[in-house]
Structure formats: C-alpha cells, structure tokens
Design goal:
The longest helix has 43 residues. The radius of gyration is 36 Å and the shape is extended. Helix 5 runs parallel beside helix 9, helix 6 runs parallel beside helix 7 and helix 10 packs antiparallel against helix 11. The chain has 396 residues and is α/β, with parallel strands linked by helices. It folds into four domains: 96 residues, OB fold (Dihydrolipoamide Acetyltransferase, E2P), CATH 2.40.50.140; 127 residues, Rossmann fold, CATH 3.40.50; 84 residues; 39 residues, no CATH class. Helices cover 44% and strands 22% of the residues. It starts with 5 loop residues before the first helix and ends with a strand. 19% of the residues are buried. Strands 1-2-3-5-4 form a five-stranded mixed barrel. Strands 7-6-8-9-10 form a five-stranded parallel β-sheet. A three-stranded antiparallel β-sheet has the order 11-12-13, with no helix packed on it.
C-alpha cells in the first residue's frame, strides 16, 4: 500500500490548483466579512454568499492600489488566483484587484461572462487560428484615421517594409456606435479588397474606452473574417474579447505592424548571404570544371576531340565572366563601405577637431593640460593648432 506524507499530499493538491487555468485567473463576487488590515499592509478577509465562503489574502503591494473603500458587509468583485496555503492545508484566494459591484465591476463581470461563452463555442480555439502571411502585399487597417495609432503604424511600416500597401477602412474606435462601425469596416475589407491580412487597432485607454472591442457581434465578425486578423488594441496589459478571437494578438498597434511584416534590413542580410553562397557555389563549380577539363585533356592525349574541348572551354569562359561580374559587384560594395567608414574616421580624427578651431595645450614635457591647476605662473606651454604650433608663457 502506497502512503504519502502530509507535505507530499498537500504539495500534490497545490500543484493541481496551480495547473488549473480557471483558478489561475478568476473574478469572484461576494460579501466581505472578517476583514483585517494588518500592520504589515496585508489584508486578510473572507468573501461569502448564502451557501459558501472563501478565505482571501491581499498582499501589501496590491492592497495599496485598491481605490475602493472596502468594509465588512460590502458586495465586492475580487480578482486573483486560487491556490493552497501549505502551512495550514487550506485553499484561499490570493487577491490582486478589488472592484465595487457596479460600474467597472459590472463590466468585468460582463467581460468574463462573454469570454466564457465564446470560449465554450470554440471561438478561441488555437486550432482555428490561421497563419499570418510572411510577405503581405496589402494590409487592411481598421482604425480611426485621426488616431495616433494609424500614424504610428504608417511610420513603422515605412521604415520596416515600405513595399507593402496600406488600405485604411475608417471607423470609430470608441463609444456606443463603434462596434457596428468596426463590423462594417471589417466587412468592407473582406468584400471589396484583396488585402492579405487585417489589423484592428486602437491606442491605449481605460476599460470603458476599450469596451467596444468586447462586443459579441464584433467578436463573431472577427471570427468569421475570410482574411486573417491581427489585433493591436491598447497597451500590453490590456486584453479584449477581440484579442482572444483574432488569429494573432499584438500588445500595441505599432507591434501589430511589426508582426504583420518582415524586416527590410533582415531581408537585405538574407540576400547578402544568398549572394555570397551563390558566388561560393559558382567558384566551386568552376574549380570542378577546371579539374574535369584537366582530366579530359590528360585522357585525350592521343585522341583530340577538338569540338568537345572547345565547348568546355566556352562554358569555362562563361563561368569566369559570371564569377568576375559577381566579384566586381562585391568589391564595389566593399569599396562603398570602406569609403563610408573612412569618412566616419576622418570626422572623428583629432586633426579634424583642431581644424574646427580647437587647440591642444601641453607642457614642455609633452603632458596634456586639461585643468588650470596643472600650470603655474611663468610656465612655458606649447599650443598645437590645426596647422601650426605656438609657444606661450603663463601670465596669469
């Protein structure tokens, strides 16, 4: 019969709690009781309803951020994770947020309810998410044309991958009318364009500002889009229902633009590597052909198939021409890089600095003078100018 220590069975239960995705990120609604605000800054309390109760702890750092006046008997909404307190073998809620019921608290409840509903229907299933094209020709953008997010994305793409064409489908991104307008903007791109990927974007804001992206009809429209969708809504800590439905979630609009496109600089490096590899392959082939030709000439010492040899010589000549052109291009590029670096070195040289009107002061032993305390009255100094040197004596 297998037996366990109390520590082992408690740790086993602890691990079960920590592995549960629901218990790791949960909102719980209940009435406050047994509230203790310890001198350490930690809060200990219980939330309960008519049938059950749940012990809670909120550590000092999280308690400082609470903006609700929490008292015994209050109805509150608590966010955190449920885990096991090993020392007592009890489970409890480790709280990191508290909201009053009503206002933002109700929005959290609505968010969690819709999230659970759509998740149960499979809209968040990773298996249904489509890959983002590696080299998009056109990107559709659903956002406000006056928003900073639109201008930030244009700047990112102009720097990162200027070959791509942006197609804006304008819409409101805040307020009661925003969800219907965003749905229509998505439908326009799906119906009237050949874009390769769609970015739904909006800059940061409060929960209320971003609430239009928690609309059920909008979430379903994103899920039904025939074109892959990237969400770039708010900041990194912000999550909306659209983020869960989209094929790819980016932490910001600018990050969405980066994730939708390759980096031009990386592509140029890849091309350089391919070119160098091609030159190496051609050089190796040329060497092999020269060796083969040598073998043919040796074996045909007494029989001379002149036409075959001439044909091989022509092929060899062509390879040399191609290799020569490739080598010249490489040398030209290296020459440009060398010229640029030479210019940078010249600009940073001491002679260049002196030519701008500066001088280098040293004593007769050649020591550089950097501060007045290094010299004394009547001491002789050397002053190096751009083209000449003068000797001076310290008067004061």
């Amino acid at each position: 019969m297998q037996t366990f220590s109390v520590r082992e069975i408690t740790q086993y239960i602890h691990d079960l709690f920590d592995a549960d995705a629901i218990l790791a990120d949960i909102w719980v609604h209940g009435e406050v009781s047994n509230l203790t605000k310890a001198r350490s800054g930690h809060w200990y309390f219980t939330i309960k309803d008519a049938d059950a109760q749940l012990r809670c702890v909120m550590f000092r750092g999280a308690a400082r951020s609470v903006r609700v006046d929490v008292r015994a008997g209050d109805e509150i909404l608590v966010h955190g994770r449920v885990s096991v307190y090993d020392a007592r073998g009890e489970y409890q809620l480790y709280a990191d947020q508290i909201e009053a019921v009503g206002g933002v608290g109700d929005l959290h409840l609505q968010f969690e309810a819709l999230k659970a509903k759509l998740d149960a229907e499979g809209l968040f299933d990773p298996a249904r998410k489509r890959p983002i094209p590696a080299f998009p020709r056109q990107i559709g953008v659903v956002t406000s044309p006056t928003a900073a997010a639109w201008h930030d994305m244009q700047n990112v793409l102009r720097r990162r991958f200027p070959l791509v064409e942006l197609v804006l489908s304008p819409t409101l991104v805040q307020g009661a009318e925003a969800p219907r307008q965003i749905v229509r903007a998505l439908e326009r791109l799906n119906r009237d364009t050949d874009v390769d990927v769609i970015i739904v974007a909006r800059g940061g804001g409060s929960l209320e500002d971003l609430w239009c992206f928690n609309d059920e009809s909008l979430a379903r429209a994103v899920g039904e889009s025939r074109i892959p969708v990237i969400s770039g809504i708010g900041h990194e800590i912000d999550f909306t229902i659209v983020d869960f439905v989209a094929d790819l979630r980016a932490p910001t609009p600018s990050a969405a633009a980066e994730m939708a496109t390759p980096n031009r600089d990386d592509l140029l490096l890849d091309l350089d590597r391919l070119r160098n590899g091609l030159i190496a392959v051609l050089g190796s082939a040329l060497d092999q052909h020269e060796r083969d030709l040598g073998h043919l000439q040796s074996s045909l010492r007494f029989v001379s198939p002149l036409k075959t040899v001439q044909r091989e010589e022509r092929r060899l000549h062509d390879y040399r021409l191609r290799l020569g052109r490739a080598a010249r291009r490489q040398l030209e590029q290296l020459g440009e890089r060398l010229s640029n670096r030479r210019g940078a070195l010249d600009a940073a040289s001491p002679a260049h600095i002196l030519a701008r009107g500066y001088a280098l002061v040293s004593d007769e032993a050649g020591n550089i003078i950097r501060e007045a305390v290094q010299v004394s009255r009547d001491q002789r100094l050397n002053v190096q100018l751009a083209r000449d040197r003068i000797n001076v004596r310290v008067d004061d």
